[in-house]
UniProtKB/TrEMBL annotation:
Taxonomic path: Bacteria, Bacillati, Actinomycetota, Actinomycetes, Kitasatosporales
Keywords carried by this UniProt record: FAD, Flavoprotein, Oxidoreductase
Protein name: Acyl-CoA dehydrogenase
InterPro entries: Acyl-CoA_Oxase/DH_mid-dom_sf, AcylCoA_DH/ox_N, AcylCoA_DH/ox_N_sf, AcylCoA_DH/oxidase_NM_dom_sf
SUPFAM superfamilies registered for this protein in UniProt: Acyl-CoA dehydrogenase NM domain-like
Segments forming domain Acyl-CoA dehydrogenase/oxidase N-terminal: 38-91
GO molecular function: acyl-CoA dehydrogenase activity; flavin adenine dinucleotide binding
Record's keyword annotation contains Protein transport: no
Pfam family, one: Acyl-CoA_dh_N
Species, as recorded: Streptomyces calidiresistens
Length: 370
């Protein structure tokens, strides 16, 4: 079976032996709260995939990262989601001495970075965090909660968006804080009973009077301006998360091909839809060096993400239908992957929320992430 051969070759290049180890673990175990997926990825040096080689990382480019994420999505949706959040955090880290030291540690010690931007507030913007930072001595004291937060049990560092209160003016400024997971006052709480992506370790992380030094807090400036740092973060995230869920749908299609379910026409249609989606993601990634950090690059990434979202939903539903009720109701494979594939719609920014901003951007207005 040649489906996803190129992606598997890239995966083997950067993470040799990992795909087979994941295949050897039953899906029911990989997609559970006791999943060994994150441990296996750490053992194979996965945290350093996107860390530049000058810091000791693998230095994968964006297209290679998309291919790795597609394979991870096919093997374990939960692991793909958790790894995606780590990788996007690595890319979004602002350049400074502390970042260089952190990325070197990520590569050499296989450290995980959890991404704390969501706060579980319906229709709220990830660019308007309620977590607060107040000046305290030579650093900042943080209070608030992040949810849902993947990698919450395996993380070595939490990277969290925070609204700083500036002591000189009393104004506020959005920033990124890097908090060691062992910090006093940091607590992980269960998010609730959920059967969706349980192996991603998605819970709530609460910070109560957590102190961090100045060097571990980097300003994002005005989030409404979509500056280069924020634009880069959104650009990479939309492509990576889309590839991850394209892989989830691909896991279902792999099973359809293996069992020879449906007609030749149906099988070719499923594969063709996902191949077209992946080609569009790679095309945007290929233009990224020139467009990354620019609003136009973010807009293009959003367009292909929303197109991927529709395709993944349709392909996953059709593939699950072809696999039949036994897969869906008895062995749990179909329902687990079908439910996971739908989760792409819930990653920010939502399609409905971005319709008007993207429409305005088409007419020459600045791109704003609501």
């Amino acid at each position: 079976m040649t489906f996803m051969d190129e992606e598997r070759a890239t995966f083997e290049k950067f993470l040799p032996g990992l795909e087979q180890r994941l295949r050897d673990v039953p899906i029911a175990v990989l997609e559970s709260g006791e999943s060994p997926g994150l441990r296996l990825l750490r053992e194979h040096g996965g945290p350093g995939l996107l860390v530049p080689t000058r810091y000791g990382g693998a230095g994968a480019d964006l297209i290679e990262a998309l291919r790795v994420q597609r394979v991870l999505g096919a093997r374990s949706p939960s692991l793909a989601l958790a790894a995606n959040m780590h990788h996007c955090t690595v890319v979004a880290m602002p350049p400074c001495r502390v970042t260089e030291e952190l990325l070197t540690e990520v590569a050499s010690e296989h450290r995980y970075l959890a991404s704390g931007f969501g706060e579980g507030r319906p229709a709220a913007s990830v660019l308007k965090p309620t977590m607060r930072g107040e000046r305290h001595g030579d650093g900042w004291r943080l209070n608030g909660a992040k949810r849902p937060c993947s990698l919450s049990l395996s993380m070595d560092y939490l990277t969290a968006s925070v609204m700083l209160t500036l002591p000189d003016t009393g104004g506020t400024e959005m920033a990124l804080a890097v908090v060691p997971a062992s910090s006093p006052g940091l607590e992980v709480r269960p998010l609730g009973a959920t059967g969706v992506l349980p192996g991603s370790e998605t819970h709530e992380v609460v910070l109560t009077d957590v102190d961090v030094p100045d060097g571990h807090v980097s300003s994002f400036g005005d989030p409404q301006s979509l500056n280069a740092a924020l634009a880069t973060a959104f650009h990479v995230f939309e492509l990576m998360v889309s590839a991850s869920y394209t892989g989830v749908a691909g896991g279902l299609v792999e099973e359809v091909l293996r069992r020879r379910r449906g007609t030749p026409g149906e099988r070719v249609e499923l594969v063709g839809a996902l191949e077209a989606t992946m080609a569009s993601l790679e095309a945007v990634a290929r233009s990224a060096p020139a467009a990354i950090g620019e609003p136009a690059g973010v807009a293009r990434a959003l367009h292909v993400r929303y197109a991927a979202q529709r395709t993944v939903e349709r392909v996953a539903a059709h593939a699950a239908e072809l696999l039949g009720g036994t897969s869906y109701l008895i062995d749990g494979f179909g329902v687990g992957y079908l439910t996971a594939a739908r989760a792409l719609a819930f990653h920010p920014p939502a399609r409905g929320a971005m319709a008007e901003p993207l429409d305005r951007f088409l007419y020459g207005e600045p791109l704003v992430i609501p």
